[in-house]
Design a protein that fits this description.
This protein is an alpha/beta fold. It is built from eleven helices and 24 strands. The protein has an eight-stranded mixed beta sheet, sandwiched between helices. It has a four-stranded mixed beta sheet with strand order 15-14-13-16, with no helix packed on it. A four-stranded antiparallel beta sheet has the order 17-22-23-24, with helices on one face. Helix 3 crosses helix 9 and helix 7 crosses helix 9. The chain is elongated and about 75 Å long.
Length: 452
Amino acid sequence: MKKIIVVLTSLWVFQAYSQSLSVEQYQVSGLDKLQIKHADIVPYIEQFKSYPEMEVSQLGQSSQGRAIYQVKVGQGKTRVLMWSQMHGDEPTATGAVLDLVNMIHQRPEWRQRWENKITLYMVPMINPDGAELAQRYNIQDIDINRDALRLQSPEGRILMALGQSIKPDFGFNLHDQNAYYAAGNSGNTATISLLAPAFNVAKDVNQSRRHAMQLIGVLKDVGDQLIPGHMGRYNDTFSPRAFGDNFSKMGISTILIESGAYPDDPNRQVARKVNLAMLYAAINSIADQSYQQQTTDPYLSIPFNNGGAFKDVIVNNLTVTTHSQEYLLDVGIRLNRSATAGRVDEVGDLSTFQAFTHIEATGWQYQSCETYKLSADAPLKLTNARYMQLLKQGYCLFSGPRDSVSNQSDYPLVFSAASQADKPFRGMPSALRMVKQQRAQVLLNNVLVQID
């Protein structure tokens, strides 16, 4: 991945301390992965306790007893709250928040410019139980971000109590979004999406919401430099159960930052870096109040997210013959985030969609896969050669006990209870066998295997 250098040059925003910022040097190690768990952040929390400029405290604990921490810096009148991983499977900003803490410690000259103006509160993981299971919900199966009214989750009660006690002027609600959003009609993934959430159904704009829109204009400047064409804006329909909307209703200038996909970046490290750059710019702009010189026009110019604009894989122009009929299909596949499993989610004309992987299948004929039945009594060791042998025999699906197969090959396993039908269909496993004259190829998730 190319190194990203953040050059903040907006004169009226950074006139006191405009400079080049290499965000990589502040990244804490060990967090470049799909899922960040509570155990991953605890060593850093313990380390932060030794920093004299920081106050680290435990706000409470999750349903399963995991500590929820807060890191506090500064003693200024303006209060800024940031929280991440409210959804346990949305870890990108957790890394960025820890990077920000690391930056604050490593750059005392920067901190000293704002610590008498701002008090910064950071909660790097509000849903540690969900993080442990890599799931959106907490252990009660409650979506914490839909619990701002009833407050039946301990994690929701902790966040609401924090908001009510410190009464922040600004709140940064840090999430991940799915990979399939596009930035408007650009055909680009929405790597970062932004929103100043509404505080009522009418979507009125009061002073606190205007301030959020103005500050997002500053963040847009950063995104335009780092990921031009890869920013989207969420629909601002009022969500009465959500924390962002309720904090906005409480008079908090709330900014939603959603981290999304970027090409060839499965662990979303580009979004992590942009998050850090945006949070850095936000602190600077809040400290000198330069965001107030922005209009709301930059915010309103951010294109809306185009939901479902991407597929993980699209196979174009595949020939299908069934019931004496021959026709062409595009086949769209959606994978889980680790690309270890997937399903066909649409067939037909997919010419209006983008894909992370396009496979041109003109002239190739669909052929159903056979299913290899695994047995605990006969463990299977899959080397490249053995897997290729099975593929030649028409097997590209597996069923039975998964622990009876040891996959030492370069190819993923696709499991199914039965063989495929004579045509691709929605919901079928993400394995496609294609033949052309004497050749064959098999798509396994997002890996295309040429059969020798």
